C-alpha cells in the first residue's frame, strides 16, 4: 500500500540553527521557513535526492509538537511520511484493521491530503500518510 518515503520530520526548538546545520555543514538545499499556523508549526524543507527532511519548530500556544519537545528538549525524529495513492482508501483499510487514526484528513505542508496514525500501532513511530 505505501509508496515512497516522502519525508522524515525532525522537531527542533531552534529552527534557524537546524536549517543552518543542514545548509552550511551538510551542504543540503534548504528552503526558507514557512509558517503553517493551521498545523501549529513553522517548517523548513531540506531537499535530498531521494527524499526530504522536514524541520519543524512549534508555532503558537497549542502546537502539536510542544509535548514532544518537552520530552525531547534537544529535538529528535518526530514522524515518517509515506506516500499513498488514495488516502481515503488507505484510511478505511487501516481503520478496518484496527489502527488508530489521529484526527481527520487535512491539507498538509505540501498542499496535499495527509493523515496521521498512532505511534503505538506502528512500532513506536508516528506515521503520516500523504496522498501522492
Ligand atoms: Co510531515
Concise summary:
This protein has 132 residues and is an alpha+beta fold.
* Helix fraction bin: 10-25%
Assembly type: single chain
Number of strands: 9
Judging from the principal axes of the Cα atoms, what is the shape? globular
Structural class designation: alpha+beta
Q: Considering the protein shown, what is the CATH homologous superfamily?
A: 2,3-Dihydroxybiphenyl 1,2-Dioxygenase, domain 1
- Per CATH, what is the topology? 2,3-Dihydroxybiphenyl 1,2-Dioxygenase, domain 1
In the residues, how many domains can be counted?
Answer: 1
What fraction of the residues are assigned to beta strands by DSSP?
35-45%
Number of H- or I-type helical stretches: 3
Which structural traits does this protein have?
3 helices; single chain; 9 strands; alpha+beta; globular; 2,3-Dihydroxybiphenyl 1,2-Dioxygenase, domain 1; binds cobalt (II) ion; about 130 residues
Fold blueprint:
Elements: E1 5-11, H1 15-25, E2 29-30, E3 34-36, E4 41-47, E5 52-58, H2 66-71, E6 76-84, H3 87-96, E7 101-107, E8 113-117, E9 127-131
Parallel strand pairs: 1-5, 6-9
Antiparallel strand pairs: 1-6, 2-4, 3-4, 4-5, 7-8, 8-9
Bound molecules: cobalt (II) ion.
Walkthrough of the structure:
- With 132 residues, this protein is α+β, with helices and mostly antiparallel strands.
- It has a single domain (2-131), classed as 2,3-Dihydroxybiphenyl 1,2-Dioxygenase, domain 1, CATH 3.10.180.10.
- Helices cover 20% and strands 39% of the residues.
- A hairpin with a 4-residue loop joins strand 4 (41-47) and strand 5.
- The longest helix has 11 residues, at 15-25.
- The chain binds cobalt (II) ion (CO).
- Cobalt (II) ion (CO) binds at residues 7, 9, 54, 79, 81, 128.
- Cobalt (II) ion binds next to strand 1 and strand 6.
